[in-house]
Design goal:
Length: 260
């Protein structure tokens, strides 16, 4: 009997009911989608669903704990913003929210959300939006935290241009994906854009450090952590691999620690 194996997190498994001595043959038919080459990584039989094993449940508990930690810091940022009206806290909160969206996507939580469950298009485009939103939020955080308009007015204008470039990139990626459904092409186009952008931001951080302004000392370490994390993932995605969430967790954790 034919059974569809849906693409998506936790969906790529099929239940069989067999007698102890039963013999059967399994055939797979798969196709290329979203610009990626069709591939078959592995096949295995197990008496239990692997997603009920204690190791997998422990992994999800750690993800949930980390997401709870980020959500707590996000709420603190909003409280600080409400009390001080310092926009740097608001931008940091937006940055953390975008990170949470990405974690939900890569860990599979998004696939269980009604509305997303049956529409992979929404999941993919939301991920693209989250990547660019976190970049714009971090640029705005740098501007607000350092007073960039005062100490480096020329670079402040350049960062405003980068914000517009991110909006244009977001629109372009959406249009490419809507027209072609080619996720690989969108990934590579976006990673090239982000790679160039974060190299520019790296140079900006170096210039900020040279100003010897007190605020820039905290920013230098935290920003370089974020930039390294983004560039590592740019290389990973360009090579056709997934987002390296382990790297992102360490980077975001270190970033939050430096500011709190």
């Amino acid at each position: 009997r034919d059974k569809n194996v849906h693409s998506g997190f936790r969906a790529n498994r099929v239940r069989f009911s067999l007698a102890d001595t039963a013999v059967f043959t399994v055939y797979f038919r798969y196709e290329r989608v979203d610009g990626f080459e069709a591939e078959f990584k592995s096949f295995g039989l197990a008496p239990r669903d692997i997603y009920t094993l204690s190791e997998q449940l422990a992994f999800w508990r750690m993800d949930s704990f980390f997401m709870g930690f980020l959500l707590t810091v996000l709420l603190f940022n909003l409280l600080f913003f409400a009390g001080t009206r310092d926009r740097a806290f608001a931008y940091q909160a937006v940055f953390l929210f975008a990170i949470l969206v990405l974690i939900c996507q890569t860990t599979g939580f998004t696939y269980d959300v009604p509305g997303f469950r049956d529409h992979p298009f929404y999941i993919i485009t939301t991920s693209y939006a989250a990547v660019l939103v976190l970049t714009m939020a971090y640029i705005q955080f740098i501007r607000a935290f350092t007073g960039l308009k005062t100490i480096l007015p020329g670079w402040d204008k350049l960062t405003q241009f980068l914000l517009l470039a991110n909006l244009a990139a977001l629109l372009a990626v959406f249009l490419i994906y809507i027209a072609t459904s080619n996720e690989l092409a969108c990934d590579r186009a976006l990673t090239v854009f982000l790679g160039v952008e974060y190299l520019v931001l790296t140079y900006l951080i170096i210039l900020l450090h040279r100003t010897k302004e007190r605020a820039t000392y905290f920013l230098t370490g935290a920003a370089l952590l974020v930039i390294i994390g983004i560039l590592v993932n740019v290389v990973s995605i360009f090579e056709g691999n997934s987002i390296q969430m382990g790297v992102i967790k360490w980077i975001v954790g270190g970033n939050v620690t430096l500011f709190f």
